[in-house]
Design a protein that fits this description.
CATH superfamily of one domain: P-loop containing nucleotide triphosphate hydrolases
Shape: globular
Strand order of the largest sheet: 6-7-8-3-9-10
Order of helices and strands: EEEHEEHEHHHEHEHEEHH
Number of strands: 10
Strand content: 25-35%
Structural class: alpha/beta
CATH architecture of one domain: 3-Layer(aba) Sandwich
Bound molecules: adenosine-5'-triphosphate, magnesium ion
Radius of gyration: 18 Å
Number of helices: 9
Largest sheet: 6 strands, mixed
């Protein structure tokens, strides 16, 4: 379980988080929504310990993340995949080499084992044919799937997804959402997702929290949030939103 309690964070002169509280139970996808600049990515960075809260608690499985030393943080990051916006691939490495990176950094597997694992996740995301290609020559949807493969290659218990469908058309987005739901259902991965997209939130989320003024202003199951009369729920999940 990922749990934030009363987290506050000031960056520069702005109070970004102010009482951020939510919990992601094991095996669920929790979706964070909210206007741009409200601290969604900042919140994800607290969960992997890149940022420390000014006040409040950030826990993964009962362990306080800000109190971890370097080694504990490395151990945490081995258990946690991170899907960056646009996949954040390295252009001069092939898809296969990109996906292998976390294993080369975080594991002592031999070359053959690395290859097997990489091809297994590439198969899962439907990219086995593209293993030898380089990021500049593949589409946005393929980049995102390669990013997802890289996030999954260490067999993490948790995956943090930052805007997994930004810039993708509705059909490719839908495939990505299905893949994220499958990662939860088949691999038992617990997910924390950031998105602006109603389709993403409802197709692969279990619970949705919407941020306003540095904290979760309203939260509930996907069904509760769709039915809610709260103006934020209406704005992000109502019929007119995408
Ligand atoms: N390292 C930093 N130093 C100073 N300010 C920062 C830093 N990182 C983020 N911010 C500011 O914190 C605010 C929240 O940023 P964040 O990236 O979390 O927004 P977001 O909710 O993810 O927005 P978007 O939907 O546009 O991605 C922004 O105003 C941003 O400029
Ligand atoms: Mg962001």
């Amino acid at each position: 379980m990922i749990e934030l309690r009363d987290v506050t964070k000031r960056l520069g002169t702005r109070q970004i988080l102010e009482g951020m509280t939510f919990a992601v139970p094991k095996g669920m996808n929790y979706v964070l929504m909210g206007p741009s600049g409200t601290g969604k990515s900042v919140t994800l960075r607290h969960v992997i310990g890149i940022l420390k809260p000014d006040q409040g608690s950030v826990q993964v499985d009962g362990q306080e993340v800000p109190a971890m030393d370097r080694e504990q943080l490395m151990a945490l990051r081995r258990r946690m995949g991170y899907l960056f916006q646009n996949g954040a691939l390295i252009n001069w490495l092939s898809v296969e080499q990109n996906v292998a990176l976390p294993l080369e950094e975080h594991s002592k597997l031999g070359k053959g084992e690395v290859r097997d694992r990489v091809h297994e996740v590439l198969r899962m995301v439907g990219l086995q044919q593209a293993a030898e290609q380089f990021p500049p020559s593949i589409s946005g949807g393929m980049k995102l799937r390669a990013g997802l493969a890289r996030a999954l290659v260490t067999q993490p218990e948790y995956v943090l997804y930052d805007e997994p469908n930004a810039g993708l058309d509705p059909i490719i987005s839908h495939q990505i959402h299905q893949l994220i739901a499958e990662v939860r259902d088949r691999l038992g991965v617990t997910g924390l997702l950031v998105t602006h997209s109603r389709a993403c939130a409802t197709e692969c989320g279990d619970r949705i929290g919407i941020i306003e003024k540095g904290k979760i202003a309203i939260e509930g199951t996907v069904e509760e949030m769709i039915a809610s009369d709260h103006p934020l729920a209406k704005a992000f999940l109502g019929g007119g939103s995408d």
